[in-house]
Write a structure and sequence with these properties.
This protein is globular. The chain is 30% helix and 24% strand. The chain has 323 residues and is of the alpha+beta class. It starts with a strand and ends with a strand. The chain has 2 domains: 5-49; 54-322, Endonuclease/exonuclease/phosphatase (Deoxyribonuclease I, Chain A). The strands form 4 sheets. Strands 5-6-4-3-16-15 form a 6-stranded mixed β-sheet. It has a 6-stranded mixed β-sheet with strand order 7-8-9-10-14-13. It has helices at 23-49, 74-85, 100-109, 167-182, 205-209, 212-224, 239-246, 252-257; strands spanning 5-7, 15-17, 54-62, 89-93, 114-117, 125-129, 134-139, 147-152, 155-161, 191-196, 231-232, 235-236, 250-251, 284-288, 296-301, 316-322. The longest helix is centred in the first third of the chain and has 27 residues, at 23-49.
Length: 323
């Protein structure tokens, strides 16, 4: 590139000398062109490195009394198992005895720098994430265990753990949930409801209609505890899940299973087959608002010999695609 020389003599103003009087404009134009070329190359390089689509994998698991029952070897097996799932959001129920610090340590072990715990008493729930969690709310009034809410990647996550033995209370909790969603600032919020709903889906009714033993099990529970209302007039009650479905949410596992797919329950597991917990039923769900359904790639219950020994509940997972 031609270069200009700055020279002057005593008593004279400095002047530029060089090949031509157009040297300075030439230099400026050349430098500008080089900068634009460099910026364009960097932009194309960044675009080439960026994925054309991303996914958000959700995992939910009720871990049974915060691992205070049958602690080992299941706890030492559970921690690496969660890491192996490579989920972006992990939702947990029954974090009994947990503190925010303990949940944060465990979340860091599976690569999540963000975590939120509902409470430090009773049956706590929690959520951990690879991405920041904002707009966190902890709702206790009217909820048996409480409701934890946070926003991740523009999606409102509600961590669910509804009443375990009273169908009417579950319906009331679903109504409180609906009121909170309606108060969100988004006109059409993207919502995921995830966790242990302790309720029965009408999508599984054909299975339960064939299970007379489950009715007898709940009869024994209701007779033993005057406050329990597992059965409604001697029958299985679907009101809690029906209230969720009436709000427009989609049961992702049932959606991908289809009407003819085989029933798979999430409770109880082989870990607790030495106790009477009744027969197989589905209590754990991942629901999405209708505007998210087109992005749901898959949803399934993780049932295998390993997960059968990690807790009394099986984990559930769903993966969302983002263009």
């Amino acid at each position: 590139m031609p270069h200009a020389i700055l020279s002057h003599r005593r008593g004279q103003r400095p002047r530029l000398t060089g090949p031509t009087s157009r040297t300075l404009p030439y230099l400026l134009a050349t430098l500008l062109g080089f900068s634009l070329l460099l910026a364009g190359g960097l932009e194309r390089g960044a675009a080439a490195d960026e994925p054309t689509a991303t996914t958000l994998k959700i995992l939910t698991h009720n871990v049974w009394y915060g691992f205070t029952r049958k602690t080992q070897p299941r706890y030492d097996r559970w921690l690496p198992w969660v890491s192996e799932q490579a989920a972006d959001v992990v939702v947990l129920q029954e974090l009994n005895g947990y503190t925010p610090e303990r949940l944060a340590r465990e979340a860091a072990a599976w690569g999540h720098p963000y975590s939120e715990l509902l409470k430090e008493d009773g049956f706590a729930t929690g959520i951990t994430s690879r991405h920041p969690i904002s707009d966190v709310q902890r709702l206790r009034d009217g909820f048996h265990h409480g409701l934890l809410r946070g926003r991740i990647q523009g999606i409102w996550f509600y961590v669910i753990h509804f009443h375990p033995s009273n169908f009417a209370r579950r319906v009331a909790e679903a109504e409180l949930l609906e009121a909170d969603v309606k108060a969100l600032p988004d006109p059409e919020p993207s919502v995921v409801l995830v966790g242990d709903f302790n309720g029965f889906s009408p999508a599984d009714k054909a299975h339960y209609d064939r299970d007379a033993e489950l009715i007898r099990f709940f009869e024994r529970l209701d007779q033993r505890d005057s406050n329990a209302r597992n059965l409604n007039a001697g029958r299985m009650d679907y009101g809690g899940i029906e209230a969720i479905l009436a709000q427009g949410y989609v049961d992702t596992v049932a959606h991908f299973r289809g009407p003819d797919g085989p029933f798979v329950g999430t409770f109880p597991t082989a870990l607790v087959n030495d106790e009477d917990h009744g027969t197989d039923r589905r209590l754990d769900y991942i629901f999405v608002s209708p505007n998210l359904l087109p992005q749901v790639e898959s949803a399934t219950i993780l049932r295998d010999t390993q997960t059968q020994q990690l807790s009394d509940h099986l984990p559930v997972t769903a993966t969302l695609r983002w263009p």
